[in-house]
Fold these 2 entries.
Entry 1:
Amino acid sequence: MQTRSKRPLTLRDVSEASGVSEMTVSRVLRKKGDVSAATREKVQEAARRLGYVPNKIAGALASQRVNLVAVIIPSLGNMVFPEVLSGISEELEGTELQPVVGVTDYQPEKEEKVLFEMLSWRPSGVIIAGLEHSDASRAMLKQAGIPVVEIMDTDGEAVDTSVGISHRRAGRIMAEEILKAGYKRIGFMGTKMPLDHRARKRFEGFTQTLAKGGVEIADQEFYSGGSALAKGREMTAAMLRRTPDLDFLYYSNDMIGAGGLLYLHEKGADIPAKIGLAGFNGVELLDGLPLQLATMDACRREIGQTAARIIAARNAEGASDEGQVVELSPTLSFGDTLRTN
Amino acid sequence: MQTRSKRPLTLRDVSEASGVSEMTVSRVLRKKGDVSAATREKVQEAARRLGYVPNKIAGALASQRVNLVAVIIPSLGNMVFPEVLSGISEELEGTELQPVVGVTDYQPEKEEKVLFEMLSWRPSGVIIAGLEHSDASRAMLKQAGIPVVEIMDTDGEAVDTSVGISHRRAGRIMAEEILKAGYKRIGFMGTKMPLDHRARKRFEGFTQTLAKGGVEIADQEFYSGGSALAKGREMTAAMLRRTPDLDFLYYSNDMIGAGGLLYLHEKGADIPAKIGLAGFNGVELLDGLPLQLATMDACRREIGQTAARIIAARNAEGASDEGQVVELSPTLSFGDTLRTN
DNA sequence: CTGAAAGCGCTAACAG
DNA sequence: CTGTTAGCGCTTTCAG
């Protein structure tokens, strides 16, 4: 139908091909304003025949509106963020808005760069992971004059609005359950990530609550890089060699927890009677393990949905420009690796 | 530093604040053309102080250039695509270009929508998964007048350029190795995905090669939804109940393969002597399993890098506008679940 | 090295 | 219901 052409088609081409003014063509193509069925048909036919694709750059400049929501996350390989994203997409599906993703690799400088880059496209809103940002990033977010939702975490001060869980509380709850179940000699394994503030907060909540119960972490180890499953396996083996009397292992994520679980299960360990295990995230991926790992879900999908809903609402007319804090409650699953007491 | 303002800052604001013409401000901010050190300093100081973020919409419209590469993939939850993406990002890092991701959920209509949407931003290139697209999508890709690289697969005709592996050949190679190892009673498990053409092609290559060796698939089962690990476990159990004399199980992806592996390992099956297993993808994630699953890597990262490099090269001056086919060679790993002879 | 003028392709705001 | 007139904020081009 179309002919090869170096220059992309413009509204004017459609206008000429259909004998209708540019303005009316624009109305038809945007389904905005009333146009008679006859001309509408003529225009659509011409547009289709030519293979016209509107130029959003020009449209956005003229209308001063860009229906994009910038979504800024640390990583895609983490399993948790794709789920947040699908919550966002799902929720935005019914609206004009579209998510655009930027990845920071947990680096504040990269976050700053990505944020700057995305804001320069003048999006209608920003959804960004975490509450910890560089001063420059916070300044940009404030200055942008658009709704900003910081997600995943509520332990801290948001620029505008935050949606997430309290990781301190999550660590605390896990510690309480472990104590309640009567475990005493507790080991911790996690990522060596000074910049993963949420893991850090969980760890803090965890150790502080143990301390209140008169228990101290008996051993701990941090890793970085490599296959998480393999790392969990190795670290668990090493830790039990070093501190054989541990009766509970708390992992900062489910993947290393699964590695530990597989290792102990093979060794014929008496789980959860003699040794208990728990991870974090509620990764559905792991459902087929020999034992179900105790874990705590982080409400990933729900966080995405809620954040997206807030942005969408604020973009609608007559929205209250108020910031808010939405704290979701993670649910603990005991699985097969934490005594229910 | 900045003041609250509803209206985002413009070049004119920076111009007024620095007492330098808009044009020269623009030159400084884009580091284009020669500007005296003194004025450059003045401009940069003003821009920083005000918190100016350039408006790329306006810039793109004026310059007729958008440094975006549209990347269109079926899914983010698949583990394989995030790796392709990181190959792309890595390769684009050194250039002006930036990837923008769109997800199709394996649905041709959604692909068409996403493609239309992305093309309307006039990107500098398109990287799109697969060779199978609707007529409309192919038309748009041809019409766009920008480099288009179809990735993952080379079994078929590309619009412009393709980079990937031959999935037919991958299936064939696996079949050859299985026959060579002397397995005879072979079961297949995979996703119920009429739209996953690559899985289909592997399956075809696999069965055709078995047939040449006088072997027919003894049993097969397809699933959809749910946790892949759990599905692999269940399907394996069911299949062996139904067809107990199977001596090899070929899985269309590593996750269900891992489920089967865990199941059989727990049952104390004699792997790989009495029963062999193989998956597909080379998912590093699974490195900590009790046995290493035989698999074939799909060159995910390398595909991303190559595709990005091609787009970048074509965007440089004096590039040959030629389409090409880049077929990469997947490597087979025997792991612990496929007899080496 | 710096500035002035003229759009990029589309849509808001008015007229008819 | 349809058309006309101005820009949107930046960059290209051409003069100084």
Note: The CA atoms of residues 137 and 281 of chain A lie 28 Å apart.
Entry 2:
Amino acid sequence: MSCTEPALQTLRARGFRMTPQRLCVLEILHNAPEHLTPQQVYEQAARAMPGLTETTIYRALEFLAGHNLVNAALTANGKLTYELARRAHHHLVCRVCGQQVEIDHEILLPVYRSLEETSGFHINTSHLTFFGLCPHCKETE
Amino acid sequence: MSCTEPALQTLRARGFRMTPQRLCVLEILHNAPEHLTPQQVYEQAARAMPGLTETTIYRALEFLAGHNLVNAALTANGKLTYELARRAHHHLVCRVCGQQVEIDHEILLPVYRSLEETSGFHINTSHLTFFGLCPHCKETE
DNA sequence: TATGCTATTGCAAGTATTTTCAATAAGGAG
DNA sequence: CTCCTTATTGAAAATACTTGCAATAGCATA
Ligand SMILES: [Mn+2]
Ligand SMILES: [Mn+2]
Ligand SMILES: [Zn+2]
Ligand SMILES: [Zn+2]
């Protein structure tokens, strides 16, 4: 499939390999409407590729995240979920009802700049999760 | 110990209890030079209170974090570590060597404000972790 | 200080995630 | 197209974390 062509090139250029298992994970995340847990990815992947193991899913997700082909996001209960890497963005999620709002990366650029200036670091966090209370839950305490 | 007095009041006022196990966890974090993993807390706690279980440590950390007496922080590999809640701050950690820099919460206030304004949310994320490359590792690629 | 309610603990069992290692297969070279 | 190197997989075992439940012990009240 065409949407995975660039990913394939990226990996090979770095001496790594594109496998059907990794393609399967990318495919699943590509069609997912939202972030998925490793378990959810596994369930779908196992359906498409019987015999594939959970171990492989965990490894594929970590690997793909390391190569910026997928992003990991933190949930309110401290667990990681994944999504296909796309336009840089962040999340704001309600601790009570779980409602999510997406945040453009541009909004954070100024802070990134000032943090880089004062620390000398090059920041490459690509996917932050802020927590809080949504307009509704803010009312009902 | 006096440093735990306020914590005790906080909990009782809300109908919860201060137990020797929770005090032990607070005590350990109070003396820790940096963030600790649940396992590290357990090792120290078990030495002070034989019989205490890992289950209790996990529950105490989550409970105390829920009451803002301790803060959870994300490590580069997606795992949670804990520290005693103190002045609001965040972290900037190098993905290569692990070097950490602390960030004053004030620096992020403007962004918080603008995020709250545009989303209507009340943000209460108290402990963010930014990742990147430190000045040194930035050089050596 | 004695009593009662119920939040909290420890234990056991369940689920999730990581690690180790031998067998397999991606993909560059010829 | 075949061969070779070695990145990657699957299986099993080890660890990490969560959940259910009965016994225990904070602490509010009298
Ligand atoms: Mn996202
Ligand atoms: Mn901290
Ligand atoms: Zn809400
Ligand atoms: Zn570094």
Note: Chain B touches chain A through 33 residues (CB under 8 Å).
